[in-house]
Write a structure and sequence with these properties.
single chain; mainly alpha; 0% strand; elongated
């Protein structure tokens, strides 16, 4: 249960960071395409984790978290593009990507434990 609460908090805090990044990209960089993509996938992580709380079965729970993991991977892709295109700085990238890596690692651990039947 602790991991479920932890991942919810991490993903919500990350979503707030993504929203701030989105605003920065629009207002300061005038970047409209990648900013929308990272906004959608970055906030979707937490939405899918929130949905998992009402899963109808273990399989449904795993599925919802697996979707969140896919969204996290997509977010990583967009952040890398923003960084490699020099739209965001090394400092901005390093800060937000570290948070995302923690979320990805936590999701992988929870999904693995659920599949092994170690979490109820």
């Amino acid at each position: 249960m602790c991991q479920k609460n932890t991942i919810s908090k991490l993903s919500k805090r990350f979503a707030f960071r993504i929203i701030k990044l989105y605003k920065f990209l629009l207002e300061e960089k005038h970047e409209y395409i990648m900013s929308k993509q990272v906004y959608r996938s970055g906030t979707s992580i937490g939405a899918n984790i929130a949905e998992s709380r009402n899963a109808q079965s273990r399989a449904d729970f795993i599925n919802k978290l697996s979707i969140a993991l896919k969204e996290a991977d997509e977010t990583k892709y967009w952040l890398e593009l923003l960084h490699e295109s020099e739209t965001i700085s090394d400092k901005q990238f390093d800060s937000i990507i570290n948070d995302l890596k923690i979320i990805i690692g936590t999701l992988i651990r929870i999904i693995k434990k659920m599949k092994e039947g170690r979490v109820r």
